[in-house]
Amino acid sequence: MTQDSQRRLVGADLQESEEAEAIVAAISAKHPEAVVRRSPGLVRVEVPERLEVRRDLVERFLNRNWDTQDFNLSIVSFFGEIEDWDEDHIVIGWSH
């Protein structure tokens, strides 16, 4: 196995909406390696090892203020562990 194939993916499934599109755009801006998959009503974004959702980037794509607690309104599920969540960012990763 190559080192890349051993890296664990983390990510989130988001209910399709304007806010979810801004979140996905912010994640993709922060993580160019992000893979986005779409199905009816759902957007999945996944990255290797660690995913960060930055409030300032979401606000830039949303064109308005955004509270990281509003992530709860968009997220359907996630895979990984919530490592950090404050007013500036959300981090999903693998601690172990």
Describe this structure in words.
With 96 residues, the chain is of the alpha+beta class. The longest helix has 13 residues, at 18-30. The mean pLDDT is 93. It contains four helices and seven strands; from the N terminus they run H-E-H-E-E-E-H-H-E-E-E. The protein has helices at 3-6, 18-30, 55-62, 71-74; strands at residues 9-15, 35-39, 42-48, 50-54, 75-79, 81-85, 89-93. The protein has a single domain, classed as Phenol Hydroxylase P2 Protein (Alpha-Beta Complex). The strands form two sheets. A four-stranded antiparallel sheet has the order 2-3-1-5. Strands 4-7-6 form a three-stranded antiparallel sheet.
Task: Sum up the structure in keywords.
single chain; 96 residues; alpha+beta; Phenol Hydroxylase P2 Protein; four-stranded antiparallel β-sheet; three-stranded antiparallel β-sheet; 30% helix; globular
Taken as a percent bin, the fraction of beta residues is 35-45%
Dominant shape: globular
Number of helices: 4
Total domain modules = 1
List the helices and strands and how they pair.
Layout: H1 3-6, E1 9-15, H2 18-30, E2 35-39, E3 42-48, E4 50-54, H3 55-62, H4 71-74, E5 75-79, E6 81-85, E7 89-93
Antiparallel strand pairs: 1-3, 1-5, 2-3, 4-7, 6-7
Helix pairs in contact: 2-3
In short:
By secondary structure, the protein is α+β, with helices and mostly antiparallel strands.
